[in-house]
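Job type: complex structure
Entries:
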Amino acid sequence: MISRVLSRVGLTAAVLFLLLPLLGLVYRAPWSSLGTILASTELVETLRLSLIISLTATALAALLGLPLAWGLVRLGPGWKRRLLLALALLPMVLPPVVGGVALLFAFGRRGLLGRPLESWFGVELAFTTAGAVLAAAFVALPFFVLSAQAGLRAVDPGFVENGRALGMSTSGTFWRITLPLARPGLAAGLVVAWARALGEFGATVTFAGSLPGRTRTVPLAVYVALDSRPDAAVALSLVLLAVSLAVLFLLRERWLGAPPTRPALPVAERSLGSVG
Amino acid sequence: MKRTGAAIFVGVVAGVVAVGGCAPAELDRSVLTIFAASSLDPLMTSLEKSIEQELSIEMQLSFSSSSVAASQVVEGAPADLLITADEPSMDLARDEEVVERPTLLARNRLALIVEQGNPEAIAGLSDLSRPEINVVLCDPDVPCGRLAGGLLQKAGITPAIDSLEANVGAAVGKVALGQADVTVGYVTDVKSRPELQQVAADETASDDFAAEYLAAVVRASSSRADARRLVELLQSPAIQSRFVAAGFLIGAH
């Protein structure tokens, strides 16, 4: 009895803890002028840039993340897999600012790879949209890898064996059997990685800078606008809030109901908890 | 086993909290919290100990861009004294009537800042429009950005900007790290960092586009008397000479 009351109280406290900040944002929103604020060319431009950067970053994360996830699935238990997994998940645990600093010393103008890139090929990532994509992809990668790995792992090995028995090559079974069957996990990975990329702030501001139209994404614009134009900051925050909620809601409807044995989505959901 | 681990963790956390919480209370001095423009960081931090002794207070310094500091005071942050780098930032707080009348502490001229040795051979403000060099400026919402924007506009120069940073420390830091080639910061930024160098000082020597450090006591503060003593001390000849040594200008222009 007491324990039931306690758990009720705990649940209510948790819900309030999560709900109050959202209510605060909604309460402060300039509802009457919201339309005009969001329709201003500056904000439309910011939203467009954010969309481009986050989608490109998601594609990059998937491109790098799929072989990584497959590698993790194929490695047997042991220190090698633990090490690779730790490396793959590091950007998720690392404070994004630290990620940005690390990127700076790798891909910055004085960085390990950045210096030769600039002097040999004239490629410069500092203060470019490509730099912002890199920062967002770095932080989004683990979210894709976790989901993709779980999705790949959930594929019944029997199907692959059957394919082999029918004379398919190893790569044939991967592309034609494993990948299609792992689709729900991969799709969930794409969505959470995109949500994380869209919300990226710390690594971007540290590594790529902040220039409207080039690197100033929605979160950076919120940060800059908060002091001088709080209405614009709140309006943009509301957009991010709505997008994040929609993503989580869609994930539930579309992918959580997928095959019952699949551990992919609990992982994806837990990952989303730290988006931000 | 698990339970032991958790118990140890809780014990350690409780110990750290207890030790951390006791230290200031033992000294039994009043604590003054100062929200200040980030360009004051090196000087104020170096003055901290001597001011604390002189006034028998404990100082807590929080540095950010002037507009952030002012907005935080407006939002009810527990500050006793607000120091901004220009009047528009101070006005954010004055308009809401959360601070007393401000006092001018010092001024700070703008500086065209490059890395020591000037590798990109930047000769003056007009080089800011060269597209091949990385130019970072402060955002127009913060004092250094407002001032630099005014100066460049008066000189008829359209800079090829690569990034607008949230405070002067971030802008100057990008040059120090080699990410950017040049920025417009303050004279004091160069003085406090040996890896940086000022160029074309005559082009930025304008008093019309210099930062003006204004200090105002927060009305809601419970230590207003101590905060006023601090403002007086900051205007004393001894401290003002430290301002000068750090590269600030004193007195009205």
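Summary: Chain B touches chain A through 21 residues (CB under 8 Å). The radius of gyration of chain B is 21 Å.
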